Structure formats: structure tokens, C-alpha cells
Amino acid sequence: MHGGRAERLRHELAAREPAATAAGADVRMVRAPGRVNLIGEHTDYNLGFVMPAAITLETWIAAVALAEPVVRLTSLENTETREFALPDPGPRQGEWIDYPAGVAWALGQLGVPLRGVAGVIDSTIPLGSGLSSSAALELAAAWTLSAASPPPLAPMELARAAQRGENVYVGVNCGLMDQFASVFGRAGEALLLDCRSLEHRSVALPAGHVLVALDTRSPHRLEASQYNARRAQCEAAVAALAACQPGVHSLRDVDEPGLDRLAQLVDEETLRRCTHVVRENERVLATLAALESGDLEQLGRLFAESHASLRDLYEVSSPELDALVAIAVSVPGVVGARMTGAGFGGCTVN
Ligand code: GLA
Question: Is residue 224 very low, low, confident or very high in pLDDT (cuts 50, 70, 90)?
């Protein structure tokens, strides 16, 4: 399949960019995967734990260098061509091109030499499915736009640059999980990331089982604004607690007694959000233990608790996600099911 896709990209690029057919033309072809998150939802920007796994759905870019400082990209999904200038991509356009432009902006801030390119983008990650089509596009763009291949940044710095582009340029206050998973993901394993120390390790998946992502195909509703609102609630709670407990810098520093203290300081809704985050972090570590000891029943319970918490406390599930989870757990052989990613629509992980 890779051979076929590479051929198709080469062909589509040549049809649009005569430079790509010149003798000796240097076509750079890159790809970056999407991800599912096993557990640890809305914990990354609270400096907690996440456990994502890269998936076989991925985003490709084939590009040739241009003499002028311009990035011109065509999405084969909708055949739209969009462009921006280097080194300053200008204001965001409110479209998919903002993700590559945000990466260009962030890499530029770090002093990474960039090149003008003309390229085509192809992706098997359904847009808006919660499988990190944005992060995959960002990382593919980073590998495409860097003058040097690979970019002169450590992998974690590259992931953080892509995240910064999305935070500052695109305006989505996401955490590091998706970009991290796209950079570090490897076939057949999940990854545990401590979003505070940035320490990470691989986690073996149970033999004889497969990870299945199921797409509700329901649109994300108000995702970016709701997402940013959740994050703001968590940060407000941390600020309230830090005022009387100076050692608290994030919800990672909060335990059950800390939640009791928070109950005196914040409104009931904010307390529910924080309760989700604090206990979800514990569930990630419990999931690691369950995977390592092969306790799949416990894994199923933790998935169920995580989903209920995202539905009732963090309030980011949807009727479609709840229905898919209910159906999946009624199927013999399914170990566990829960919503994955930001929520408000998108996929379940099973
Ligand atoms: C989105 C964000 C991630 C993470 C998840 C929720 O995928 O991009 O940083 O916050 O939502 O866990």
C-alpha cells in the first residue's frame, strides 16, 4: 500500500508542479501517523499522564523545493490549494493551511532554517475523527518545511514546536499528547508519557488482542471553544488552590485531600472537572499495572470508569459516543471501550 500511495503522490505532484518532473528533481516524501489514546484524557495540559498509541492511518506530503520563500500545498482530499509566505506566514486563514503555517511560525521562532516548497497532501485519517489528523499534518509539515532533513531538533522539541504552533498560531490550547504520539509512536506498542517530566516509555499491548478505533462519524460540536473552556477551568482551579498552597503548579500536584480543599474554593462544575483529571491520572497508572500483569478485567473496568468520568464529570462525551461504548462492551471478546481524544464526537477506543 505504501508503494501505491507514494506513486500516487508523485503523480499528483508532477501534474501540478512541473519542477517535480525535471531530471534529478528532489522530491521529499514524508508521512506522520495519527493516534488513539488508550487512557489519560484531558490530562496532558494538566501535566499528568497519557497513554497513546500511533495508528496505521497517516498523513503524507510529497514536495519539491521552490526558489521563492513560499509554501504552496494542495490537499488531495478536497483539491484545495492554499499558500503562505516564509518566514512570516501572516494571519491565520481559518482553514487547514493554518496547521502547516503554525508549524512554520513555531520553527521560525526556534531559528530552524525553512525552505519554500510546492507539495501535495494525502491523508487516510478522517478529519474531525479525534484521531489527530491535525497533529499528523503538523508533523508532516515540519519534516517537509525544514531545509535540513531531518529537522535539526530533538524529537521532543519537534513535537513541542508543533504544539506551540497549534496553541499560539491556530489558537487551540491543546496539550502535547497528539504531537508526541505522532513523533514517538511505533508499531505494536503504546506509549506512556509523563507530561510534567516528559519522561516516556513504551507499553506492550496484550497479545491476542487488537486495538480498534470506532468512528461515530458525528461532527465535533464546538470543539475548540469547549476545549479551551475546559482548560481554562482547570487553570482557574489551580490558581485558586495555589493562592493558599504555594506548591501547587498544576492539577498534577493535587490529590484527594487537595480536591476536598478545592471544594471550598471553586464552583461545583469546576470541582467536577478537577475530580476527573486527578482520578484519570490514577487510572493511567492503574492501566499500566493492569497491562503489565495481564489483568484484562481490570483494564475493562478502568476504561469504563474513564468513559463515565468524561461523560459525567468532564462532560465531553456525546450520545453517539455513549451508544458506541454501550454496544461495544456488550460484544463478547471486547475487553473495554471508552471515548478517545478530546470528545464532543469523534472515536471510541476498544
Ligand atoms: C486533543 C488534544 C490533546 C488532548 C486530548 C484530550 O486530542 O489535542 O492534547 O488534550 O484532546 O485528552
Answer: confident
